[in-house]
Fold this protein.
Amino acid sequence: MCAARPARSSIPIGEFSTPRARAALAVGRGLGAVPAPGLVLGGVLGLQGGAALTTGLYPAVGPAGVVTLRLCIAALVLSALWRPRPRGDRTTLALAAGAGTLLAVHHLAYYEAVARLPLGAATTLEFLGPFAVALCGSRRAPDLVWAGLAATGVVLLGRSGTALDARGAACAIVAGCCWGGYILVGKRLAGHVPDGRGLALAVAWGALLSLPYGIARAGGRLLAPGTLAVAAAVAVLSSVLPYTLQLEALRRLTPRAFGVLTSTEPAIGALTGLFVLGQRLAVSQWAGVVAVALASVGATRAQGEPAGEAADRPGDVGRPDGADGPGDVGRPDGAAPG
């Protein structure tokens, strides 16, 4: 540990002199100071807030246009901050391409679902992906208890008393599958790349995949000033903020723990629908909110990671001892991960 600390002083002072380098370093240190559960919660809040904002964009550009604008603006912001290198090693490029593809398909499916279903219902069905990751990765009985409680909450939240649009429900389930896959691929990407460069590459690839579809469906309406302004806010809330927070959380959590913690998403989606969009909740749905919240709290308290498990995690970001390591997020020197 002690031998690793002096490595920081070997980095030239000039590495920290540019605004981008200082911003990257500040972002890395700030994220490292936030507990992993707080990062997951912040990401979920951003995703649901952005989803609520997109309802105003559907008449103008439709779900495909929303996704294209969201990913393209997010890619520009992340690339300006991290300046990823497209000619990286094959593993980084493969992981970034996989994560970006999952993000693009997830976005297209999820926003098609939100256009046809209440926000709480769409988010509840989408949660099946992270829930499956949490359940399949469980090895201890208490984990199954919290996962089962979360599943009960999902069922209660889904009981809206009205028939759901079949196409919207199918899109939400596809989005859930993609989100579950992103948890697994994102975990590997977070462990392989020590900062936000991998995320920037992934989002840029997702933007390229969505661009032809968005242009074909929305055309020149994508460039309307009012549409761009709202889309920029959606991109920050739904992409830049949550993916930065959640990728950092994935460095510290197992995929199972991350999947259970995201069980707050249906509850937050339902609450966002209530307070922002005026979508009322039945008594059974409020019971679902409580059940999901309790499951998330229980999973967080039970996460007390065994001593040996930390050594198996790649990245080891936000180490309280401040020692250098392959997960030293925000390092402006661009050093390759260990």
Observations:
- The two ends are 15 Å apart (CA to CA).
- Confidence is low (pLDDT under 50) at residues 1-16, 305-338.
- Residues 61 and 219 are 8 Å apart (CA to CA).
